[in-house]
Amino acid sequence: MVHRKSKQPPEQTTEQGAVAPPTTSAPADASPDLDEQRGSSVATGLAEAQHGDLPVLVEFLHRFWESHGAAGSQGRVVPAERSLLLDHLLAEPFPRGPSSIAEVLRQAETLLQRETVKTSHPMFLGYVTPPALDIAALGDALAAIVNQNVAFGALSPLGTVLEATAIRWLGQIINYPATCGGILTSGGSDANLYALAAARSRLLGAASATDGNYGEPRRLRIYCSDKTHHSIDKAAILLGMGTRSITRVQTDAKHRIRIDALRAAIKHDYNSGNWLPAAIVGNAGTRLCCAFDDMAALRDVADENEIWFHVDAAYGGFLRLATAPPEGVENIHLADSVVLDPHKLLFVPFDCGSVLVRHSRDLSNCFGTEGEYIEAKSPGGLSDFANLGMQLGRSMKALKVWLALKRFGRDGFGLEITRLLDLAHYLAKKIADDVRFELLGPTSGLALCFRWRGDGRSGDEHLNVLNSRIRRSIIREGTAFIDEVLLEGKTGFRVCMTNFRTTTTALDALIEAIAKLGTTSKTMGEWSRG
After folding, report:
1. Which residues is 491 bridged to in the sheet?
2. Does 414 share its domain with 400?
3. End-to-end CA distance of the chain, in Å?
4. What is the chain's Cα-based Rg?
């Protein structure tokens, strides 16, 4: 092999005129081209490539944040019909080389301004998707900047302590005991999954980890009402139990699970010899009407049968902070596990849910494992959050929760949630007093279902079509964003009072828009044929 004398790279200077460190020499047998490539990659790595971006990013963020705050409360709630921008984005090729920071931000700003749903608009009333508090949004940005992995305390002592503090504070909202524990999750779906996994772990013991559902010859059974969120179905699927393991029990006129029917279902399963009751799921705020099950009665049934009692209180649990909470919310603390979503009524950005357990060991017994580099304990004796859930890479979600709770406190959130409940009562009364409208389902919480009925002479089949098209028209015109529901064979609207920018003026405008569409003769004629 012919050995060539390695090239010595010339001195390089920075923009400030200082001499840059020399690049590392390539191996003596490297080709000249490879020499140049290696020298170039060292000299122009990402650290140097992004040099100068920060001032541009800070200026952009300040300007965009201010403009979004103003524009987000005005104009259309949803984008106009899908534009070519999204089609172009779908077809955009993978960039080979870098783009200027100005061009990247220009494109991002155009997309964000034109193609996002304005969840901060006062007329955004669909789903429980509130706007984010500024300080909580800042928390997300700060967490991204420091980029901590809160799976292990050794990697993020601050993140671990912040999350333990956030869990403790969330537990105090529902009056949980000091022995409680928990973990922040991506949302209520993950949280429900974790809770049911913990229920199985307590029931089957060590066999839950080694043999899974095969640790018990009988199939495991989950009981919930017919108004329970479908994330319970997803949890049953992921736990290998399947949706057939779920018994959906009938509800009463207030959308509460019927205790007599629940007891009968459990007794039937025990007597069959084929099923082993594993968990009862109660609702503290059903998806459609924010109804609350009788928690004390469910606790009694769970104790009678030695079954885990779980409560999905993703948004309803925060109503405990209100001046006059709805009936049923006061006994959430009786559950073995509870789901609370800070990205709902604590108004922190998506995503941020949580699952709380009365005894912290229930999560560590379920998810605790040992690996080559997994430490058993974090500094200060706190459990590593890697051993309380699935993820081994976790962002610092707790920072935005901590910032929001520090900024406004229990009383600040209590006042806002009380205001939102007052808005729900205002709208319910407005609808009840107008014979052209009809309330659907109970009205004790933050979600309200109703429909347009006009002069009352049309049948349900026609009204179902009409209400569905009124809703589509409202969204298409950009007036508001509301959900469509089907309750007891009647199609109507679902409005969620979870937006801290919504006022009575916005609700009045919504009712006026629905009435205008419902009474327009031309529209009525067209829709009656549709």
Report:
1. 486
2. no
3. 83
4. 28
CATH of residue 353's domain is 3.40.640.10
The tokens describing 455, both together, are 């002069």
Q: Which domain holds residue 225?
A: 138-407
Residue 318 falls within a domain, yes or no? yes
Helices (H) and strands (E) in the chain, counts: 18, 13
Domain termination residue (choose one: 374, 407, 440): 407
Task: Decide if 505 is inside a domain.
Answer: yes
In three-state secondary structure terms, 195 is helix
**Residue 316, both tokens:** 């309803």
Q: Which two tokens stand for residue 83?
A: 């534009």
- Within this chain, do residues 321 and 176 fall inside the same structural domain, yes or no? yes
Residue at 479 is within a domain: yes
- The secondary structure element, H or E, covering residue 300 is helix 295-305
Maximum Cα interatomic distance, the chain, rounded to a whole number of Å: 98
In a domain, 107, yes or no: no
Ramachandran sector of residue 202 (left: φ over 0; alpha: ψ -120 to 50; beta: rest): alpha
User: pTM for the whole thing?
Assistant: 0.86
Q: How many CB atoms lie within 10 A of CB 213?
A: 18
Amino acid identity, position 199: A
Co-location of 211 and 285 in the same domain: yes
Q: Are residues 154 and 235 in the same domain?
A: yes
By three-state DSSP, how is residue 458 classified?
coil
Q: What is the pLDDT of residues 8-36, one digit of tens each?
A: 444 443 333 333 333 334 444 444 454 44
**pLDDT tops 70 at residue 490:** yes
Q: What percent of the chain has pLDDT over 70?
A: 88
Q: What is the dihedral of CA 115, 117, 119, 120, to 10 degrees?
A: 50
In tens, the pLDDT along 41-57 reads 555 688 888 888 999 99
Q: Of 377, 407, 437, which one is at a domain's C-terminal end?
A: 407
Q: Are residues 432 and 367 in the same domain?
A: no
Establish whether the linkage from the previous residue to 260 is cis, with ω within 30° of 0: no
**Residue 212 pLDDT exceeds 50:** yes
Length of the chain (residues): 530
How many beta carbons lie within 10 A of that of residue 410, not counting itself?
Answer: 12
Q: How far apart are CA 348 and CA 324, in angstroms?
A: 24
| Residue 492's CATH number | 3.90.1150.170
Nearest to 428 by CA among 448, 446, 456: 448
Please write the tens of the pLDDT for every residue from 221-259.
999 999 999 999 999 999 999 999 999 999 999 999 999
Joined together, the tokens standing for residue 8 give 């010595």
Q: How many domains does the chain have?
A: 2
Judgement on whether residues 356 and 499 belong to the same structural domain of the protein: no
Structure token pair of residue 112: 């964000």
User: What is the DSSP code (8-state) at residue 510?
Assistant: H
pLDDT, tens only, 108-126: 999 998 899 999 999 999 8
Q: How many other CB atoms sit within 10 Å of the CB of residue 255?
A: 22
CB-CB contact of 402 with 335 (8 Å): no
Task: State the pLDDT at residue 377.
Answer: 55
Question: Are 227 and 301 part of one and the same domain?
Answer: yes
Indicate if 440 and 324 belong to the same structural domain. Answer: no
